[in-house]
Amino acid sequence: MKQSRNTTAKATILTALENAHTALSHAELLALVNGVCDRVTVYRVLDRLVKEDKVHKVITLDGTIRYAACYHKEQHSHNHVHFNCEKCNTTTCMETVNPEVQLSSDYTITSYNFTVTGICPKCN
Asked: Which residue of 15, 81, 99, 113 could cross-link 94, Cys pair, CB 3.0 to 4.6 Å?
């Protein structure tokens, strides 16, 4: 049975994210899929991958949404620190850094997004 175009697009996008060392924007992913699908399909596939918990969104300080593959571990969480390099503009998941958020008891936290900005080891 031949794979549907959408399944091929999904597999191609997920592979691109899994092979990336940093979170990628929609535009970067569109360039990487190189004609496998159009920009609307990339958005749809990314939304599906987020819902399936295979990918998570990272919102950078400039408001750009980037996507990173999830590498499931025993205590998998999208709530971790992201590092944004000021020189090369890469965004990296820092899954070993676990920030604590403490709010008064009348607030309920459902998710959070921490972004630390500086210079990455590659640019130092």
From this structure: 81
